[in-house]
Amino acid sequence: MESNSQYARMDYWDERFQTEKNFEWLSGLNAFQHIITPLFSKDSRIAHIGCGSSQVSMQLWELGYRNITNIDYSQVLIENGRLEYPNMEWISDDITTLINCESSSFDVVFEKATIEAILVTEKSAWEPSDSALHNLENIFSSICRVLKPNGIFISVSFTQPHFRIPALLREKNWSVEMFEFGDTFHYYVYVCRKGNSLNKELADRYSSIAKSWLRPI
Ligand SMILES: C[S@@+](CC[C@H](N)C(=O)[O-])C[C@H]1O[C@@H](n2cnc3c(N)ncnc32)[C@H](O)[C@@H]1O
């Protein structure tokens, strides 16, 4: 029987990408392009982590961004991508380590709906498990490591700020900002700038609602 917990399994994604060539989670670039493209330049080195079969990288390419790396732990997806879009770089890697990516090598790390896939087995949004918090710390510290000084992490998500902002605040090496888009269902763009000091007003506002996302482990 199908359940959301399958989204946390690599074998599920490998099987899905045997046939799936194009599927966009949450929203396509056109809905949030106005928020993200002013944040970087045409020659920025951009990593789309947990890229899946999203067309965001291809749409950025069409807009003139030519230094794009697609990263996913599904070997099937990466091999298909290399054949179909050889003008972009494709790296098979787990976003909890990014072990196959060089330190300080990207201006921008972009993710959409992959953190949600990794947290899908969580039982309560108010009480994250130790394992969820470990995963988040590993993901965020890996992203920080591969970002250049002053690089930015962009996360497009349906997770509401009172849950996601305290989680992002676990990483002490970046500042956090938030934008919103969508007409009926609202989505969020979280922007974290490596090396910037914390936005205290935002931190104060969001770290007291769902405090468990900030608890020590
Ligand atoms: C929900 S899809 C999102 C795909 C794409 N970002 C989008 O917005 O359409 C999650 C993707 O993350 C990948 N993924 C899940 N866990 C991962 C991990 N730990 N490391 C790397 N990729 C992962 C899956 O293979 C899948 O392609």
From TrEMBL:
GO terms for molecular function: methyltransferase activity. InterPro entries: Lys/N-term_MeTrsfase_sf (IPR051419), Methyltransf_11 (IPR013216), SAM-dependent_MTases_sf (IPR029063). Residues 48-154 form the Methyltransferase type domain. It holds the Pfam family Methyltransf_11. Keywords: Methyltransferase, Transferase. GO terms for biological process: methylation. Belongs to the methyltransferase superfamily. This is Methyltransferase domain-containing protein. It comes from Caenorhabditis elegans.
